[in-house]
Amino acid sequence: MLEPSSSEEEDDDLNTQNSFTTQDSLSSGYKSGNSLLEPPGAHQNGGPPRAVSPMSVDGSTKTGPGGRIGDGRGSPSPSLTSEKTLTEAEIAEKQQREEDERKQRIQLYVFVLRSIAYPFNAKQPNDMIKRHHKVTKDGLEKLRTKVDSFLKGETQIPSDEAFQNAVHCYTEIFLKSERVSGIVAGGGLSQHDCREIFRHQIEKRIRTLPEIDGLSKDTVMTSWMAKYDAITKDDEPRRPGQRLPTSMLGNEVMSKEQLYDLFQQVLNVKKFEHQLLYNAMQLDSSDEQAAAIRRELDARREKVSEMERNRKLMPKFVLKDMEGLYIEEMNMAINTLKGNLESLPVQQGGKSEKSNMLPKSIRGMKPRRRSSMLSRSQSSLSRGDEVDESHVTQLSKSDVVLTFQIEVVVLEVRNLKSVPGTRIIYCTMEVDTSDKLATDQVEASKPYWDTQGDFSTSHPLPVVKVKLYSENPGMLSLDDKELGKVVIRPTPLSSKAPEWYKANVSKGSQDQELKIKVAVRMDKPMNMKHCGYLYAMGKTVWKKWKKRYFVLVQVSQYTFAICSYKEKKSDPSEMLQLDGYTVDYIEPAGAMFYHMNLEGGKFFFNTVREGDSVLFATEDEPDSHNWVMAFYRATGQAHRPAPPVTTGKSSSLNKNQGDADRARKHGMEEYIAADPITFDHHALFAKLQNLSLDWRLQDPFASLGWFTPGQVFVLDEYCARYGVRGCFRHLCYLEDLLEKCEKHQLIDPTLIHFSYAFCASHVHGNSVPNNPLGEKFSMTDKDIDDSLRSDGVGTVTQEEKEKFTEIKERLRVQLEYQLTNFRFCFPFGRPEGALKSTLSLLERVLMKDISTPVPPNEVRSVIKKSLENAALVNYERLSEEARIEADLANPQEDMVGEVIVPPSRKLEDLIRLAELCVDLLRQNEEFYAEAFAWFSDLLVEHSEIFWSLFAVDMDNILAEQPPDTWDSFPLFQILNDYLRTDDNLKNGKFHQHLRDTFAPQVVRYVDLMESSIAQSIHKGFEKERWEIKGRVPRPCVGKPSNGCATSEDLFWKLDALQSFIRDLHWPDPEFGHHLNQRLKLMACDMIESCIQRTYTSFETQLKKGILIDATTYVLPSEICAMVNVVLDAKNQSLKLCAVDGVDVDKSKKPDENAKTKKHKYHTKIDDQIEKTSANMRVLLIGKLISVLEKTLGKLSAYDEGSMMGSFLSFANKKINVTGTGVDLGKSYVSFVRNNMDTIAKRITDDLWVLNIMEKWYFDQVQMLSTWLTDRLDKSLHPFQCTCLAHIVKKIYTEYELQGMEEDKLNSNFYQQIEQRMATEEATCVLQNAEANENGDDSDDERRRKQVEAKKKAKARGDNKDDDDDKLQRQQSKVSVPGKGPPQPGKGPPQPGKGPPQPGKGPPQQGKGPPQPGKGPPKPKKMDSDSSDTEGEEDAKKKTKPKGKPNPQGKPNPQGKPNPQGKPNPQGKPNPQG
Description:
By secondary structure, this protein is α+β, with helices and mostly antiparallel strands. It contains 43 helices and 16 strands. Strand 12 (559-565) and strand 13 (574-577) form a beta hairpin. The chain is elongated.
């Protein structure tokens, strides 16, 4: 029995059991320092449990060959089995480790929050490739269930048989494949992939369909894809308006809130912890975040300075000279960050509060135009990329000009008494010196408006004036009367709500209590960070302690100024640039050092710089806190000011202070206050990137390792902000991706290629090449620029170089493993292009450096080795699959000892294995040939190695088969049909081996078949009963047969044997031609033997004597059967003895077709058949003519002058002893009719029948003419005359009905006979009764109708006569049970075991080959002669038509009596007259 090797992949259940390893196995590990795969739920670096890894879904813990699992940064956690045995110390250590991990994650989340809240280096990419939803294990089962429901007809989707077959094939080949289950477990199969594979499959099917008028194949394709979408559509679609979870936004650009939620899931941070951090860190305040960035950059610069002083703080580089370059790179990075921060607009992140007021239209009277909103100031002073604190540009007053937007809304007037209620009133609004705006005009009794006026001013302390006017009714008045006015001095901090203002009126006015309700809103410019009234005094500015209006202005990201303003002034009266200052609280006692008599202000703080200080004070404590925090953000100082203890707690703390207290209460203060410069951001980033990758591989998309746009954005921002080196980032990424690959998760090779190319460029110190994917794999320059962004870092650390070397080796081993298992790593060519990218990556990995290309032979050797191993892996896996199928198909009972498998069962398993092998190689050609296009010869060699492995099993199993069994021929047909159509494998090593293996079997089979057929001929003809086989369907074939049982069996065996050998499509042309020639020669010999034996039996049968009454003789059916055998042999010889169905000599050129010769075998047998057929015709006619000869012998007794004639004449006259001659004539005519019907009915070749009829007629007429010629000198006896007259008349009619032509009927002999008989009849005196009997044409008419009816019945195929029933009964008796041909598909015909299954049935009977120069004869359908009965004659007499003309319109023969009593055309006397 075939013993296929075990599969390389284990069963899922076994993997699940092995996924949880013991503590001992975990502690062993690899000796090279690689750690084993930790169990699901375990974590690295002492952190908390991660989310379940993708491989833990199916419990698989397999690794690639030689690859390591895990990153080696931490020890694995204890397994589940050993957790119960932990001591208290170990439990405490574990809890401490988990707590440390939690703290690390929260601290990392703080840095991530800052990166998201105020990004200034990166942005979310919007041009990433869209990732499709992946198919999970449950999703695959649901998809299979949906397809099964469709195939069972449980859905309402209309379909046809072709679509049903396509879906069934898709299910069996793709959905139920174990390789598909593997890629699903690895998270690499998307719903789009499933759809594309279905599309690819039906495209091939539709191309093979025939064209249909009015229905294009594109329409069929579209219809089928729509049906597929209907089958696989989601059962629970998302409700309209339903918010998508964060995990479903893998292809979208995310908002800040979505990014916060995303990294809460990545870092396992709780929602309330995020809320505490968000509020305490003031993430919604752009000023606070920008200030934090400035502090971070200052701290980094200080660290660089310290590192420059102490070189031991630097990392180890591959070259000592790189230390100075490293300092330059650090300073350049800091300056770049400062430049990026400086380039941001000052107002980024601010929010407008204008939405609180609804804009209203204004319809004024006097100016009647509305002021336009001026664009807000976006002034910023960018210092470029090179920012140096030692060269700070001094600000001028023009640099701090502010622009304010003021909205004034007049709502209502109250206590207006000086004007009547019908008087028209309105209000005007103006700000400083701007144009006035007017409200609508209303009656004084209804003083209501809702009109908004928009103004723009540069005065920090503007004056808003609202005046109330009444319209002057005088005709000549020019100005309206002013009733009162309101003056308002708003600030950005003043109330935005409407308020009642008392109007200023004239002293004598009645409206002393007049009030106007006005709402004033003054927007704060984005570059104004704080404003309000302060007491201030300094050394160089504000030298006098007094209360002033101050505004803190941000000129740029690094430049702030505190300015004091006066009313209606746009330029500051005095200003102080805050560069280099620090701010802090100061107690009232400390304020006395500035001046002893400070009047005003209770809460003090000061700004200090070397040689200068300024003291500030406010009236209330919250205002003091707000100013200090605004100064703290502006100065960028590292120290955070704290309120003095003596101040105590105030009940009016601001919101930020309350958030900070709450954060401190929950332990979040330490994370917020932690200095980023004290952390190892490289280690933190490696953890962040690893957790982000884990989360990404768990989301619903088939990402293949590609991050979401939001993740890319955050990781880029983190690296730039906290100084993570680009090479280290990609090395960690490569390590994480390799770890996933070794766990059999699907990672895009292109993604690995990009990171590897970046690291190789950095480590080797070369620039990125023009084409990083190699010469054979084209890539655009844009793709290179987008994917490989060199960070310009020239230093290489020792750690980076060592890590790169280690990753390079791991990557090479992993790539070789993937190439060896390419059918399982990339099933059905999915993911698309992954295998091609893997080959490209392998070429890059084999390069010594980034500029020197790898030698082609080296790449080929690696691929060659991998494909050699792949052949073994594929064959072992396929053998295991075939063995499992065989076990399921033939379950074995539980038996003790070794189970002996019979050779036939082994052969069946081998045939099934061959079918699987052919399918496998066809899939290789279909899905993987394009990827191996540059190494196609290696793929061909891989196929030959694969077949060589199969050949070993094939040879062993064939050697176990018993001799002279032919069940292995289907194996040859399967393999040869595939190999001969593959241009690469055709006539290859395995093809030659297959040919050499089966050639002896074919020769032996032909030998045995030849012997078997010869024996069947010998035995068959010995026992042949020569029963008619015509027009009876052959068993198992359903086609009418010809000849006898032995001949039919012979022709069928010869045809089946030739069809079988032809269907083998023997690959060797020379041997195939030899087989063909041999079979043709064998057919010729067998047919010749058949003909000879038939002719011998024909002669024997024909020699049997005729009875006394010769006219009662009827040809035996055996003779007709023998004739049919010869005629059928003629038809079969054209097919069985001609080469390729063409009966010409192949040596002739096409232009010599005019004189083509028959094939030598066919020529020989054709001549033999023609000769035998002619001899049969001569002998048969001779037998029939002997009856006429005996009849004429009887008539000779009546000759004149003979003694017997005188005696018979006397006896006839006296007592009528011998009767009249009409009786003898009728007897002979009946003999002719019966034998004519027998020949026409039972001999299948109409042309042969026509020929024998013509020859028979010719011989009869010639014999009659000769007989009459011999008696020219004698007159005929009346007995002779009446007999011959009847015979001559009837045979003409009979042969005319058989279809003979008139020129052959009316021959010279017939004309002589007719003239002689006319003369003899005229001289004879006939009796009336005799004349009536002889001249009655009713018999002719009845015979004509009878023949026509038989022809029609034969044309309809009716066989209702008794003779046909008898023939069918005889045929059923001959069909012996068990002797029928084998069923189709059961291999070749077995010698000596019944006839083989024919490829084609014998030709239809009656279709003889056409004669040269003549068209095909009319087929004659004759019925049996048994229908000439009295009942039929009576019935036909009743239906006989009156006055029917003579057949063919011919006159009566000369000399024949006219029964109608009309004058004879010849003028001869009428016997009735």
